[in-house]
């Protein structure tokens, strides 16, 4: 039985066209800065997001961790949302790699306010850790694909400027956030107005955009020069990566314009969950992630096992919630079959 896989948007496989683009890529030794396709991708991301330079990374985790290491020194403190990936899912890397502590801010599905950020900045007193960075995530993965309000980002930027702090964005799913905002997704898409609000941005190509590997970090030329050293230290200096970069360029040209379909399918799934008697709550469906709360007495571990036996793979998200992620390897026919599984299922 085919299991329709809603566990993550990272499960997508490269298409035949993407593989062809990868095979045709011009390559060179990227440690010698001689890979033309990686250079093209880095320049394109930097231009699109309004920054001077970009740097290819093998993963979003490494891109975020390198950025944090450039921004902060051991003993410093990073302000971020209490649902953030850099805190929950990067193996304690802020402490381990940067030697920094974390100030977690509660909020609305991972989105905090400028007032909270101001209140969390430590005074310049040697009792306290030096606050050195504010980090945002857009969309917030653990917040169910929540999109930040641009005026709140603007206000946080103003606070950071007042206090001389850099702001980093984990934009693993920035694509989804921008699609939800109705931003242009053409080959000449210019998101520089959004991007310049941050000192550094990491984006991932291996999530909704469907590439097998790849993230890019953008920032000032000086920031990227320093991130280059950190990437080397972390073992992320790579050689003929043009094929991987070509997959990312292909994704920008061909997959980004289709991303809205994942959001439309997510909304359909959300409606079905709202109508199902075993679910009592649904988080607002803003992008490609759907999180629903089971009725009291039903465990998420049991429910996901039962759904998987019937052909729908999804993820327990805590004891009473389930998460589904829409992605480009799921089409309308997959969704129809999944909705039929759901309609026929009753917990227990
Ligand atoms: C919001 C967010 N940031 C960063 C990452 C890390 O990406 P990677 O798995 O490529 O290390 C993920 C992965 O799912 C993510 O969801």
Account of the protein in words:
The protein is of the alpha/beta class. It has two domains: 16-257, Aspartate Aminotransferase, domain 2; 259-344, Aspartate Aminotransferase, domain 1. The protein has 14 helices and 13 strands. It has helices at residues 16-23, 36-48, 60-71, 85-88, 93-98, 114-120, 150-163, 174-180, 192-195, 221-233, 242-255, 260-275, 300-309, 332-344; strands at 4-5, 53-57, 77-81, 101-105, 131-137, 167-171, 200-204, 215-219, 279-282, 289-294, 312-313, 315-316, 321-325. The strands form three sheets. A seven-stranded mixed β-sheet has the order 2-8-7-6-5-3-4, with helices on both faces. It has a four-stranded antiparallel β-sheet with strand order 9-10-13-12, covered by helices on one side. The chain has a two-stranded parallel sheet with strand order 1-11. A hairpin with a 6-residue loop joins strand 9 and strand 10. Helix 1 (16-23) packs across helix 11 (242-255), helix 2 runs parallel beside helix 11 (242-255) and helix 3 crosses helix 10. It is globular. The two termini are 21 Å apart. Pyridoxal-5'-phosphate is lined by residues 59-61, 64, 85, 137, 141, 170, 172, 204, 206, 215.
